[in-house]
């Protein structure tokens, strides 16, 4: 008697388990993996990525195809082993078919081998290192909505040629870190190709406490341009020491850091004159997309919403991750399915104007199959403000020389 | 007495079988934890081995990184398959260990410790400054085609950990162990018993260096990517000490239990606290609590519990 | 010629900063025999304190330095009384685990409170400089150096002439004898730890306008500080100064003289450290006591 009751209960439970997924189909969430650097050395980047994705989910009304969006944020702790664990967890246990993040080049490299095990659709809104382009660019499921390092130097040289012509002397300071090493060959190629004479190539140590030796050599080389190929932290030291050492170089050229609020606050007056490329910065006053006013509002409105929610200024990574995530949700919606290949096809077809730039994946110069937002603007710090100086159609000011 | 020893042996054997059989289940997440626990176990046992001889190492990341690079270069450049690359990794670590021991023969205590730390930092700088060999800070991938299935790599790591336990257990039965203990208590006095401290140190670091390098090599096959900051990360050194300290130093079971506990705590806080950004903060608090509550590690706590039970 | 004078000046300034960062470790190791992995976090917290005082209350980091030092001292004293004290009787190595745990807590507390964003304060002296012939003197580094020297001299004076300082030295030399002399060892321990933390915070206060700040800035500093302390001979304040100066000078010299030198500098200084230890197995001031590890 008792035994048969047990059997019935088991059968019922089994039946429930079998039918449950069918019943729950309509409500089964669409799951997206979001491995970000939320703690550890690169926390500033990963938390920006997470903010962007959070905003995107809310802007989209938290649902796609009538099903709730469930973003599984995992912390890769800026650590290689943990990155492998986190990716394995997302891909194999959570079985997500869509991954957005991480941001920094090194962490993306760590995440690549585990990604290869199952190859979900992978959006990397960050990582300018072409090391990752060589490794991932040709992958069908890899999407890169951010410029590669050669895009930086193409924009910088175009701007310089526009204002000061060619033939000037250039000194390069680069770090022994992944950033400096990755940028150096592309920078040399672009600047030499544009007709600049490289008079000094000086290596500095990532995380060092004193750049005086490198700056002395810059002073002695008397270049017209100083190009600093270093990460944000080193850029702060370089900027402050260049100011106090009074290097006397007319044009101070950075990569992307001078457009970061973080760098601007840390360097203060010392930042004046520095140039930077960026794909976005606050107060660009770009229009929204009239077809999707809620998803792609004007830059002013988006920034207002961002400030209200996070009580801080957005950096370029915030809107970048926002736009990348919204594009993914739209592609899923248009595909009418969460099948990988259909969504990829929709992402390939998509072409929308947004406050972040034209949202369209094309082929990159270096062979990345899915590349978006490669166009960059150049800005300069002038009297404590960021002034767009290139390309001419959006410029609000002109290039000036640094210091006296 | 006999049955108790037999129970112990059976428990060890069961543990070994479980760890070796786990990859057959084919769960990637389980495999990943298995790799992290087993590779940590190997460096932890290695560190404990040097400690048994009275040598405090602050340079286990050197062996770990050296092994990783040896395996990577052997595989990428020479096309060495997994076992051969691991053999090369272990040999590289052994040689480095012997060299370090011979070089630092008259350094004691904290001075020896700092010299191992310097060794690791030197290797990191060399790795960063020789991009033609190591890929520099940009790093190198293990050629993807060379990698066997994850279950195979996991099995290899598990095998490595079992081998490390067997080696440590075997050494504990030899004269070498007695010599080490004598050195630990007093190096000068140990000479009176006819022990040559230099020879003992060289032997000890040969085994320990090989073991830690093997772990590094195995971890490379699991991760598939390497750069000098990852390879010579001083946190490997710190973890290789934390695991034995949590478990109980100078014992065999201590580093084993400690490794499980360390990975359990760090993965537990990471998954449990997820995206909150508090995971590492809580891990730190847990470490502080553990060391205050279990000054002699899990093994010490267990012994205290047993002693209390034994009292009528 | 100008290059070598410049090299000497920059090396000396860097050495001054290293001295201040390392001397606290030397003191706490010398007196309490504790290997404090969390010392770098005292530096980090000192930096953040100076930064926030500058940002919120417009205090120049040089003006707020006394406050930062005092705060660091009190925090160190309390940390010792509440936490560290408990592991003194435990196996010696547990300190590694404990102080690493504390370091992890403090780092991540900083992230939670202030995010991982990079910061940097500005002092009135930040961008002033003078050119003496071919030699460039940046005032920020010069003043940091002078302050570091003053603090170290004050510490040495205190150790040598004050009653408590003498008691501290007695404890460092021989605990048992000091105990028999009626010296309150526990208080001396906590006091030394507090002073050690205060010196770390002072280093942080000066670094706040020299280098970028982040919650993780402490760990690389502490590694270097250990090397310095060992180089000089553990527990000897004079040794720590000598070690820091040697390291600062050798790093700067390699950076100036070798091509790509900045990248090799740190490696070369560790080779240097290894070499000196091999020649003088107990550091430059090698009278340090035999290790007491179990």
Structure explained in plain terms:
The complex is a heterotrimer of chains A (404), B (312) and C (294). With 404 residues, chain A is of the alpha/beta class. Chain A has a seven-stranded mixed sheet, with helices on both faces. The longest helix of chain A has 23 residues. About 2% of the residues of chain A have low confidence. Chain B is an all-alpha fold. The radius of gyration of chain B is 20 Å and the shape is globular. Chain B is built from 15 helices and two strands. In chain B, helix 13 packs antiparallel against helix 14. Chain C is mostly helical and 294 residues long. Chain C has a domain of 200 residues. The radius of gyration of chain C is 19 Å and the shape is globular. Chains A and B meet through helix 2, strand 3, helix 3, helix 4 and helix 7 of A and helix 2, helix 10 and helix 13 of B.
Q: Quick recap of the structure?
A:
Chain B has 312 residues and is mainly α. Helices cover 79% and strands 1% of the residues of chain B.
Number of strands of chain C: 2
Shape of chain B: globular
**H and E string of chain B:** HHHHHHEHHHHEHHHHH
What is the number of helices of chain B? 15
Overall mean pLDDT of chain B stands at 92
Gyration radius over CA of chain C = 19 Å
Provide the residue-averaged pLDDT of chain C: 90
* Major sheet details of chain B: 2 strands, antiparallel
What separation lies between the terminal Cα atoms of chain C? 52 Å
Element layout with pairings:
The complex is a heterotrimer of chains A (404), B (312) and C (294).
Chain A: H1 2-24, E1 30-36, H2 43-59, E2 63-64, E3 67-75, H3 80-93, E4 98-100, H4 105-116, E5 121-123, H5 130-136, E6 142-143, H6 149-164, E7 169-175, H7 178-193, E8 197-204, H8 212-221, E9 225-229, H9 232-244, E10 251-253, H10 261-267, E11 274-278, H11 299-310, H12 317-335, H13 340-349, E12 352-354, E13 357-359, E14 377-382, E15 385-390
Parallel strand pairs in A: 1-3, 4-5, 5-6, 7-8, 7-9, 9-10, 10-11
Antiparallel strand pairs in A: 2-3, 11-14, 12-13, 14-15
Chain B: H1 2-21, H2 28-52, H3 60-78, H4 82-103, H5 109-129, H6 131-134, E1 140-141, H7 150-172, H8 175-185, H9 187-192, H10 197-223, E2 225-226, H11 228-231, H12 234-247, H13 253-273, H14 279-293, H15 297-310
Antiparallel strand pairs in B: 1-2
Helix pairs in contact in B: 1-7, 2-7, 2-10, 2-12, 2-13, 3-4, 3-5, 3-10, 3-12, 4-10, 7-10, 8-10, 12-13, 12-15, 13-14
Chain C: H1 2-32, H2 39-57, H3 65-82, H4 94-114, E1 129-132, E2 135-138, H5 139-161, H6 163-173, H7 175-180, H8 185-207, H9 218-232, H10 237-257, H11 261-279
Antiparallel strand pairs in C: 1-2
